[in-house]
Amino acid sequence: MSFINNCKRIVVKIGTSTLTYSNGSLNLRRIEALVRTISDFKNAGHEVIMVSSGAVGAGYARLALSEYPSTLALKQACAAVGQSQLMRIYDSCFSLYGHTVAQILMTKDVVENENRLLHLKNTFFSLLKMGCIPIVNENDSISSQEMQFGGNDTLSAYVAIASEADLIINLSDIDGLYDKDPRKNPDAKLIDRVDKIDDTIRACAGGAGTARGTGGMVAKIEAAEIASNNKIPMLIINGQDPFILYQILDGKHVGTYFAARKD
Ligand code: GLU
């Protein structure tokens, strides 16, 4: 039996650079492929929660701003416009395959407060029981620094913990974690499994992400560590072609697998 069969509840995290073109407009071909593969995960008996970025990027494109927003107020306004665009597209694409989506916008104070966390958990469990696909993003339009997760990689780890997920699949713009930066070192090798996140692994992660996303490998390793410490494994794969998810559904190994902590 392949490992994916043991992962009933899966959090799929998808970032801005995978969902949008460099001008911020939504990459519909990719979104459609993503929706189709996630629908097949559902049809195969898995429960899926998506953590989707792209709100600021989509808002920036829709408002036809001349440059990417740099101030917090403008980013928050863009997110308010883009979030509804995103959900409209997800709703219409998932509806084609007979699936129902539900929007959850989170701020960090929710997971820090026992009572609010309980409400969040109950909402996740009720939605999943009814067969819905919760789609989570940070509530960018109202988040202040104290309330921020610091990016959707971290958010995906907290979503997995709150929803008691069995696996996080993090769709990146790179095949996984390399032993050195593959953009600078052509001989860099993909690490296919990490059992313990230590300084050597952190050193492999290197620098920041793209201008449109907040991620980068460092944020992904931090998220993998939070997940692993809470007994949840995480897989980083390349989301440029979302049909790669079918390889996972077929039990094949792709990307870098961060094992859950044992002790
Ligand atoms: N929440 C932000 C958005 O939807 C993105 C944050 C991130 O990419 O980590 O645009």
Describe the model:
The chain has one domain: 3-Layer(aba) Sandwich (Carbamate kinase), CATH 3.40.1160. Helices cover 42% and strands 15% of the residues. It has ten helices and eight strands. It has helices at residues 16-19, 28-43, 55-62, 72-96, 108-112, 114-129, 152-162, 199-205, 216-229, 245-249, and strands spanning 9-14, 47-52, 101-106, 133-138, 167-172, 193-194, 234-238, 256-258. It has an eight-stranded mixed β-sheet with strand order 3-4-2-1-5-7-8-6, with helices on both faces. The two termini are 24 Å apart. The structure holds glutamic acid. Glutamic acid binds next to helix 3 and strand 4.
- Overall mean pLDDT score? 93
Tally the structural domains: 1
Low-confidence stretches: 208-213
| CATH uppermost class | Alpha Beta
Outline, from the CA principal axes? globular
The CA-CA distance between the termini, in Å, is 24 Å
Following the backbone from N to C, one meets helices and strands in this order, namely: EHHEHHEHHEHEEHHEHE
| Helicity level | 40-55%
> Main sheet?
8 strands, mixed
